[in-house]
Structure formats: structure tokens, C-alpha cells
Amino acid sequence: MVLAGRFLTLFLLHTAYVVHRRFALSTNAIAHDFGLSTAELGTESLESAWQRLCTLEPLDVLKIRFQLQEEPIGGKRSGKYRGVIQSVRLITREEGVRAFWKGHIPAQGLSAVYGLVQFAAFEWFSKQITVNVGGLGKAGTDFIAGGIAGSLAMTAAMPLDVIRTRLVAQAQAAGGDADGTRPVAYRGTLHAMVKIARREGTIGFFRGWLPSVAQVAPYTGLQFWFYNAICTRLDDLTGQHDAKLNQFVSGASAGTLAKTVLYPLDMVRHRLQMNGFQRCSKFGSTSDYSRGMVRSVLHIVKMEGMLGLFKGLWPSQIKAAANSGFAFLFYEMFCDILRTRKEHQ
Q1: Once rounded to an integer, what is the mean pLDDT over residues 259-275?
Q2: pLDDT by residue (tens digit) across 86-136?
Q3: What is the pTM for the complete model shown?
Q4: First to last CA, the chain
């Protein structure tokens, strides 16, 4: 119970810190307000990554399985996975419950690396832009620094993202695929790292980089734009300003809408990450996506229709709603605490 309570506390602080940072508050200010050093915030990022991924990772596994399936999700010509409930039952029967946490080690590393690089890069670029450029204002400086920091963080975490995607894409059994017809490509994170390096070289770790980077800055901007618009509308409709329920609903809606708008980039990213990797035939066909992002999008639309770009959207929306809803709620709660403390000082 003590450990669970500590994880919850760290998660709340981490969430408040991330959203504060996106609202242009400095790391030093947050650390001072909560009595934490920058090093402690870094340690907290690593620990909270484990807590968040343990609870939400099954949704990622479902999403990636849907995204990689080229056959329709439903209908008479549907592929292996035909819906969330059916997929959960099928994966559990064929691979066991543990399959929903496949790739958890690189996923945890991805979250930690992304957070640490993003925070450090944002701080450094903010100072450099303020000193050497100037005239952009706080909002302009934070937007540019945030975009650069997000791109660098995504680039640094890409190798782990590729490994996570490929571990999720293969069947669970250690000695072979679930049907026993062929051995799995990767026995674990380290084996995948060595094998990709030998067979594909450095470029193998950065497949899908362009769509990954392309969605970083727009997602944050859309998320906050939707949040402010929806929250204002809900406050007017209910007549209750700063209501916690309105903030949670607005945050969940904002995260869901932003994820939906940019979802095709996330879907194409995972298709591109499969280049150089041959899946078991029982998962269906796997096309060649070595032609780049734009041609891959056109190929998917031609072969699978526009809806093909949104495969796996439902579990992705659930995760986005949970993350964003609680993030904005905790942000507003901690803002109230900080304002109250400053009023009494």
C-alpha cells in the first residue's frame, strides 16, 4: 500500500509538471513549488513511467495489432482481428494474458527517455532563444523550443519505439509463433537490438521517423486549443466556472480529438517501422512500405480505403482520453494549490 501510494503521488506530480511545462512554467519554478530538485523530478519521471505503462500498455498492444492488419477489421473479408472484445479473447487464448504487456521494457525506456530529453532540451533551447534571438515573447519562445525539444526527444526514443512495435507484432511463444510454424524473430529487447543492428544497420532503428516527428508539435497545440474551447463552452452551459468535472471532460475530449485528427500519422509510423521485418503469415499480408511516408499513405488509402488510416483508433482514443483528462484535471488542481499558497505568502 505504501509503494502504491508513492507511485500515485509521483504520478500526480509528474502529470502536473508536464502540463505546467507546456503552459510555459519553468522547471525551476515547479521544483521550488513542490520542494523537489531537478534530479528528483528526473527520477520521478522514470518511476511514473513504469506506473503509467503498466496500466495503459494493453491498449497500445491492441492498437498496434489493429494498425498492422491490412485486412478489414470487420465484415465478411475481415482479418485475424475483428474487434476489441474478439481480439482480447483471441490474444488471451493464443498467447496468454502476458501478451498484453509485450514490449513493456522498451516501452518504459521510451517513455523515460522521451521525458528526460524533452525537459532538458526545452530548458536549454528556451534559454538560447531568449538570449540570442529575443523579441518572440514567452509564447513564441515556448512554441519553438517545445517543437525542437519534442522532435529531439522523439528522435532519441525512436530505436526503443521500433523495438517495441516489432515485439508487439510477433506472437508470444518463446520457442515459436503461437501456431508453432516458425521461431519468433526476437527473443527480447537486447536480441532485437542486436539483430536489427546487424541486418538493417542504424537506419533500422529510425524507421517511421518522419511521421513520428510530424505529429509532435501539432498534437500539443491541438490538445490545448480543444481544451480551452471545450472548457469555456462547458462553463457557459453549466454556469459553473472552474468545475473539476468540466475540466476532466474537457481534457479527455481534447486529448481524444487531437489524437483522432493526427491518428493517420501514428498509424503510418507503425507500418513504416515494420520494413525489414517479416511477420508470420497467420497475421495476414504485409506490404512493402519502403517507399516513404506519402506513398505509404496513398497505398493504404488505395488498398484499404480512407478508414484504413484509422485502424486501432478506439483503444488509442481510450488511452488518450484517460491521459489527457487526468492531466488537465491535475494541472488545474495544482494551479489552485499554487495560487492559494501564493495568496497566503
Answers
A1: 94
A2: 999 999 998 889 899 888 899 889 888 987 888 788 888 888 888 888 777
A3: 0.77
A4: 34
Grid cell at residue 178: 503461437
> The C-alpha cell of 204 is what?
533500422
**Lookup: cell for 8:** 500515485
Q: How far is it, in rounded angstroms, from Cα 245 to Cα 212?
A: 32
Say which residues have a Cβ less than 8 Å from residue 85's Cβ, sequence separation at least 6: none
What band does 161 get if pLDDT is binned at 50, 70 and 90?
very high
- Output the nine-digit C-alpha cell for 267: 498509424
Residue with cell 500539443: 220
Instruction: Single out the residue of 246, 294, 250, 245 nearest to residue 272, CA to CA.
Output: 294
Q: In residues, how long is the chain?
A: 345
What whole-number distance in Å separates Cα of residue 335 and Cα of residue 220? Answer: 19
Set of cell numbers at residue 35: 520542494
Residue 82 CA, distance from chain mean position: 24
Contact in structure between 315 and 259 (CB atoms under 8 Å):
no
Please, are residues 193 and 163 in contact by the beta-carbon 8 Å criterion?
yes
Q: On the CB side of 107, how many CA atoms lie within 13 Å of its CA?
A: 24
Question: Residue 22's pLDDT is what?
Answer: 42
8-13 long-range contacts, Cβ below 8 Å, gap at least 24?
8/51, 10/44, 10/47, 10/48, 10/51, 11/48, 11/51, 11/52, 12/330, 13/41, 13/44, 13/48
